[in-house]
Amino acid sequence: MTTPADTAHADLHSEFGAHPGDPDDRAAQPVIKIVDIAWLEFEKQNIAQAERFAHDFGFTTVSRTADELSLRGTWSGAPCILIRRSHRSRFVGPAFRAAGHDDLLRLSRETGRRVYPLGDLGGSAIDLTDPSGMSVRVVAGLTDLPSLPDQHPLTFNFGGKVERFNAIQRPPREPARVQRLGHVVIETPRFRENLAWYQEMLGMIVSDFLFFPGQRSRGPAMAFIRCDRGSDMADHHTLAMTLGPMSRYVHSAYQVADLDAVAAGGAYLADRGYHHAWGIGRHIQGSQLFDYWRDLDKFMVEHFADGDMFDSTVEAGWAPFTASGLAQWGPPVTRDFLGANPDPELVKGFLSGLKNDNEFDIHRLLGLLKVARS
Q1: Number of Cβ atoms within 10 Å of the Cβ of 148
Q2: 239 and 36 in contact (C-beta within 8 Å)?
Q3: Residue 169 within a domain
Q4: pLDDT digit string (tens) for 38-93?
Q5: Is residue 158 a part of any domain in this protein?
Q6: Per residue in 1-12, is it b (16+ CB within 10 Å) or e — as a string?
Q7: Structural domain count, the chain
């Protein structure tokens, strides 16, 4: 018998289904099943500059020394971001939360990597490397930070139903209060191998596949991937992965209370002269209300609210990867968001990607260029 959960994606992408030879949306017997993303790790040259932007974006400092910075949201849990001072700025990798210490031991037996104590963060961790060369840390038994005062969603008079009366709406133009880390997006030239690794090693499942225009027969070029929590709800994507010439960070996303928090927080950032990358709008895959900014090291970060939540019964949807298909409404997608602005490092990465033995060949490059023009 078909249930509403079984048809949830059929209603969205009924004309686009999996073809023979396409990757599965999940592994049959993964080593473990992670339950969430824990934090992201960066190296940056200027800790004071990084903290200044972080406060304007809506983070709270957990701790700071001359060489390290830890940032958090308002919800109880782990810090959202860990930053170490270095001679250059770069994304190090994500940390994912396992259900318990036994999961780390299973990963250790599978990979030969050792489990070690995390020190001030509590619990323990194991350090892995995905097929594209990115560092991936898996943690368990963390000492969660207590919650902080939250930014409460506004009360609306919608659909003829009056919830607010004898009261005005005056949300201040101030930093949006980040609640939590939602997801990270990465690019990889070894898309299928990388996807299989996250499915088989960490038990992640695909919510949506996208394919390049005119290249459906070559399979997906992007996947939105969530945690498998069984009957419990999980974010539409905790990790998103796109095929490209380089292994690199694309953006990360942080939840705020509602659309007014997104908009007022963005106005605050604009007042302070930060670079706006794209928004405000509402995505199609994941449905989030979004607004994208660049920090002072040019890393792209997103405020989001009202994202989709799925349990494990929802199978992967399929859709073409187009620029116009990235949002239900909002301004046209920018070249900055698509990574299409002229940049010497980007050109170097494209040339290197085409030379190397990986999935990104000249045909995939043409497909990617079609995305930018679609």
Answers
A1: 13
A2: no
A3: no
A4: 999 999 999 999 999 999 999 999 999 999 999 999 999 999 999 999 999 999 99
A5: no
A6: eeeeeeebbeee
A7: 1
Amino acid at 92: V
In angstroms, the CA 144 to CA 124 distance is 13
Helix, strand, coil percentages (3-state) for the chain, rounded to 5, are: 25, 30, 45
**pTM of the predicted model as reported, rounded to 2 decimal places:** 0.93
Q: CA 4 to CA 9: how far, in whole Å?
A: 10
Strands of the sheet with 36-44, listed across from one edge? 60-64, 68-72, 81-85, 36-44, 90-97, 135-140, 124-129, 115-117
CATH number, domain with residue 333? 3.10.180.10
Whether the predicted pLDDT of 10 surpasses 60: no
Reported for 123-129, long-range contacts at CB under 8 A and 24+ positions apart, including other chains, are 125/95, 128/201
**What 3-state class would DSSP assign to 19?**
coil
Residue 63: how many other CB atoms lie within 10 Å:
12
Any domain includes 244: yes
Please tell me what DSSP assigns to residue 158: B
Judge whether 316 and 209 are in contact, CB under 8 Å.
yes
- Inside any domain, residue 162: no
